[in-house]
Design brief:
The complex is a heterodimer. By secondary structure, chain A is mainly β. Chain A is built from one helix and eleven strands. Among the domains of chain B are: about 170 residues, 3-Layer(bba) Sandwich (FAD/NAD(P)-binding domain); about 120 residues, FAD/NAD(P)-binding domain; about 160 residues, Sulfite Reductase Hemoprotein, domain 1 (2-Layer Sandwich), CATH 3.30.413. Chain B is globular, with a radius of gyration of 31 Å. Helix content of chain B is about 30%, strand content about 20%. Chain B contains 24 helices and 39 strands. The chains are: A mainly beta, B alpha/beta. At the A-B interface, strand 1, strand 2, strand 5 and strand 6 of A face helix 13 and helix 14 of B. Chain B: Its cofactor is [2Fe-2S] cluster; siroheme; FAD; [4Fe-4S] cluster.
């Protein structure tokens, strides 16, 4: 598969791109979790083969479960729903699109890119240093 | 008691339904708190739903008969005195003396003492085993007596009901429910002589005899013969005697007007406190309402006019000028499962009426409409066997029907109910006196958007419920008119409902989500539609739930075949069919729990739940369980969970059938069946019902002759007892019946709709479902049977299949870039010798703390 997708922001000068896994390790429309710089990061591949990285911690329940949510769409937005209480987040921004009656809380996101079939996540300098 | 200076005191004597309504009405209107109220209730309980008394036999408990909200009794202006009778009224002193000796002052007094059940002066009427049918206590005594007699006699109990009117048929229904062989004895030449004509009575008799109740009309009881003080035989003026063990008198009611007589108030010739059309007696401080009131020269034994009287008195006490508009004696009842309705000028007493009659003895239906002489205006009617047209017809009395009257009498579906164009002033709910206009208004101005909202707002349909289909139609029509789309759409990706989607996928033979959403939806789905389609595909037997793209449709529980817990760990439940397990099985589960440090708990479904497994431990845990002969318990799925059973005839002294054997067979048959929501079954080996089967979606209870099957039971948020679907089935017929019921539910229910709600929402309710399942009214039975056979044949253990497929096991890794690292977000502390998730405080204070392998068992 030769897909070259990058969603990084050009302003990310002090961050480091870190390899996570091969794109083919990611099943379309499901997530996996990676351990990076002391963070648990959920990585999703959508049907359109875009790759997104968000915090594994569900802000509503505090449990580390986001990679196990159902991937889909709301309008044009690629989404993941928390498997715990079903709040829906925009994978691109982490914005909460449906708080299921709660005060909305958003999800931290990280930039991603795919190069030569390898998925990279950009960690900010501070994050990268925490790496064991 | 907090009382304003000018608060007056109202004493209500008699704690029936009408008294409750009076107090409700007064408290809701008397905003200034002008009246404080004392209610004297002779029975030891607050007013209850006497109309539903017979349902006490079909499993309801006394508390289920409670009326309305209990907060009324917490109102500081309302004092409820239970088990207290009014003994004497002193009109000069304006006091009531109670059975407890208290003397209460009153400014106003309302007599709502109701009636007592009349007992004819037949010799033997006081023998043990002779009952009346009026209060919860009467009914409870009757039940206790019948059960005791059955044990003593060791044969079916035989019973008779004296009186073939409304109450008599209710009582016969109660005897039937107690499995008493019963005979109804009626003095008049037909059943329900006050409500139906000869044709209707004949139809009714045929239907009721079809249910196994013997009917003897034109028969006068002359004597009840006792054997050692206990009822044993009945003799009649003509015809052979009848051996009976129990007799219920249901010959009518007499107003309880003795208090009024004693204090010198005028009573009618046949009893009843005489009141004017304001419900006032000759004493300006005393009123009478309900069955004890003699209004317009007669006493009225129905609850609807009683409620009207209660409203009038409430209005008058607050200075209003309400008057009694005359009683609507319309009734619709289901007696012994037979619909009977009578409304308006049912006997065509008004001159010049035309009668349109449809009598179909084969279908067991008798229907009559009484029309004006030009055949345009509806005056009244009688419906026996099928009263589905009642809700639509009753409000049309006195109005032009528009169209051929006969069209209204054809079977349901042949003619459209005229709900849309009902005039605003037509009374739709006669129990609570709600008009079509008020229902419409609750939608257009009250902001109600569904049936439940309208019920709460207007009270329509909250008493007997017979008008609900009509209320629903009115609400839907009004919502559509006001532009609110009554949408069945599943979510933003599909315009179809789950049931429609099921049909489309089944008929077109679609097998992948991408295919389904590209042809029938839009976007890429969401957490609502994806699991629904995953479930539909699984119900249709398209293979393993984690095969290929189907894995993306599953909620995390189905995706890892375990139950997600609050901290992100999972629990594991191996199947223990019928709750039967060998010592070796128990030991094997115990060893797995011990090795993986899992918290164990016995579930409500008679199996064992193992908590605290990390996602990456699930395959190892299941490898061990599968090797020991266990399989997935589907505790994680919207699918069959368990079939709970009591120990049954194998061990139990009382059991009459092998409930465990049947439960195991049923659990093995339906295991893995994916459905709109979870499904639970129960099997009890005798009527004592230790398996609590009637709290299940399908409950089976053993009888001497086979099995009774109940459906639509539910624990959870709104508990509901299952209702009887069929009786005395042999095992093969039972299984076939459950097959069809479940498959029909799987195909047609909404997303996350349990069977209880599905039965309620199904057009025509349980009757219609019974017709589909048992009589094959839709011609789909063979199809349902075949679908269930396919399911049974195709069953495989999901966990064994997943363990055999490396591709499926990939999803259980911990970290994609560090597969050997363990998730350190999970932390446990010991409690009562087992691990439990650490609380946030415990995590921050660092008291604990261990991963999932915490050593706690010593």
């Amino acid at each position: 598969m030769t897909i070259d997708v990058a969603t990084e922001s050009p302003a990310l000068t002090s961050s480091t791109w870190i390899d996570v896994c091969r794109l083919e390790d990611l099943a379309p429309e499901r997530g996996v979790v990676a351990l990076m710089g002391g963070h648990q990061i959920a990585i999703f591949r959508t049907f359109a083969n875009d790759v997104y990285a968000v915090h594994q911690r569900d802000p509503f329940s505090g449990a580390f479960v986001m990679s196990r949510g159902i991937v889909g769409t709301r309008g044009d937005a690629p989404t993941v729903a928390s498997p715990m209480f079903k709040q829906v987040f925009d994978l691109r921004t982490g914005e909460c699109l449906d708080a299921v009656g709660k005060e909305p809380l958003s999800l931290r996101t990280w930039p991603t890119r795919v190069q030569d079939g390898v998925v990279h996540v950009a960690l900010a300098g501070a994050d990268a240093e925490e790496s064991p | 008691m907090l009382e304003a200076q000018d608060t007056q005191h109202l004493v209500v004597v008699g704690g029936g339904m009408v008294a409750r309504r009076l107090i409700d009405a007064l408290r809701s209107r008397d905003e200034a708190g002008r009246w404080s109220i004392t209610l004297l209730c002779e029975e030891p309980r607050a007013p209850y739903d006497r109309v539903a008394l017979t349902s006490y036999f079909t499993g309801r408990h006394p508390e289920d008969l409670a009326l309305g909200g209990q907060e009324l009794w917490d109102d500081p202006l309302v004092t409820l005195k239970r088990g207290v009778k009014a003994e004497v009224i002193d009109r000069d002193a304006k006091t009531v003396t109670t059975s407890g000796g208290a003397v209460l002052d009153y400014d106003a007094l309302v007599l709502a003492t109701g009636s007592y059940a009349a007992v004819p002066p037949v010799p033997g009427k006081d023998l043990r085993g002779a009952f009346v049918y009026r209060t919860i206590d009467d009914v409870a005594d009757l039940r206790a007596y019948v059960e005791k007699r059955r044990e003593d006699l060791d044969r079916p109990v035989r019973g008779a009901v004296v009186g073939g009117g409304l109450l008599g048929l209710e009582a016969a229904g109660a005897l039937q429910a107690l499995e008493v062989e019963s005979t109804v004895v009626e003095f008049a030449p037909r059943l329900m002589p006050l409500q139906v004509d000869d044709g209707g009575g004949e139809g009714l008799k045929r239907l009721i005899e079809g249910l196994g109740v013997t009917v003897r009309t034109s028969t006068a009881t002359s004597k009840i013969v006792g054997d050692r003080g206990t009822v044993s035989r009945m003799e009649f003026a003509e015809g052979p005697a009848l051996d009976v063990d129990v007799v219920v008198f249901a010959v009518g009611v007499r107003p309880r007007d003795e208090l009024a007589r004693e204090c010198g108030l005028e009573v009618g010739e046949r009893g009843g406190v005489i009141v004017d059309d304001a419900c006032a007696t000759a004493d300006p401080a005393i009123w009478a309402i309900g069955e004890v009131a003699n209004i317009g020269g007669r006493c009225l034994g129905l609850v609807a006019p009683g409620y009207t009287m209660a409203e009038i008195v409430a209005d008058r006490l607050l200075g209003g000028q309400g008057t009694f508009p005359g009683a609507d004696l319309s009734t619709k009842l289901k007696l012994l499962g037979v619909d009977v309705a009578s409304f308006g000028d049912a006997f065509a007493e008004e001159p010049g009426g035309l009668e349109v009659v449809i009598s179909d003895p084969v279908a067991g239906v008798y229907k009559k409409l009484v029309m004006s002489d030009d055949a345009r205006t509806l005056r009244g009617g009688i419906l026996v066997g099928d009263a589905s047209a009642y809700a639509a017809l009753r409000p049309m009395v006195g109005r032009e029907l528009g169209g051929d009257p006969a069209a209204y009498l054809l079977p349901e579906g042949a003619a459209a109910a005229p709900a849309g164009d009902l005039p605003d002033d037509a009374a739709v709910c006669s129990c609570n006196n709600v008009t079509a206009g008020e229902i419409r208004c609750s939608v257009t101005e009250g902001g109600c958007t569904d049936l439940a909202g309208v019920k709460a707002c207007t009270l329509a349909g909250t008493s007997c419920g017979s008008c609900l289909p009509l209320v629903k139609k009115l609400v839907t029509t009004e919502l559509e008119k006001s532009g609110v789309e009554v949408s069945n759409a599943l979510c933003e990706h599909f315009d179809l409902s789950r049931a429609q989607l099921f049909d489309v996928i089944r008929v077109q033979g679609l097998t992948t989500f991408s295919e389904i959403i590209s042809t029938h939806g839009r976007g890429r789905g969401c957490d609502i539609c994806k699991p629904v389609i995953g479930s539909i595909l699984a119900s249709l037997g398209t293979g393993h739930i984690l095969e290929g793209e189907r894995a993306t449709l599953q909620d995390t529980n189905d995706h890892v075949m375990a139950n997600l817990q609050k901290d992100g760990s999972y629990s594991v439940v191996p199947r223990i069919p019928g709750g039967e397990i060998t010592p070796e099985g128990l030991i094997a589960i115990g060893e797995v729990a011990k090795e993986f440090g899992l918290y164990t708990k016995i579930t409500g479904g008679q199996r064992i739940d193992l908590f605290g497994a990390r996602i990456d431990q699930l395959p190892t845990i299941w490898k061990r369980l599968v090797d020991q002969g266990f399989e997935s318990g589907h505790a994680y799925g919207k699918s069959l969970r368990t079939v709970k059973s009591c120990v049954g005839s194998t061990w139990c002294r009382y059991g009459v059938q092998d409930s465990v054997g049947l439960a195991i067979a049923l659990e093995l048959r339906y295991r893995g069946l994916r459905s709109p929501h979870k499904i639970k079954l129960g099997v009890s080996g005798c009527a004592r019902e230790c398996a609590e089967a009637r709290g299940k979606d399908v409950g089976v209870i053993a009888t001497d002759n086979g099995w009774n099957v109940y459906v639509g039971g539910n624990g959870g948020f709104t508990p509901k007892h299952a209702q009887l679907l069929a009786e005395d089935l042999d095992t093969e017929t039972l299984v076939g019946t459950i097959d069809r019921f479940l498959m029909y539910y799987v195909r047609t229910a909404d997303r996350l709709q349990r069977t209880a709600a599905w039965v309620d929402d199904h057009e025509g309710g349980l009757e219609a479902i019974r017709a589909v399942v048992i009589e094959d009214s839709l011609g789909i039975a063979a199809d349902l049977d075949a679908a269930m056979e396919t399911h049974v044949d195709a069953y495989e253990d999901e966990w064994a299949a997943a363990l055999a497929d490396p591709e499926k096991l990939r999803r259980f890794g911990s970290f994609v870039n560090a597969p050997d690292q363990v998730d350190d977000s999970l932390a446990y502390v010991a409690e009562r010798g087992q691990p439990r998730p650490a609380t946030p405080d415990e995590r921050t204070s660092g008291v604990l703390i261990a991963g999932t392998t915490l050593e706690v068992r010593r």
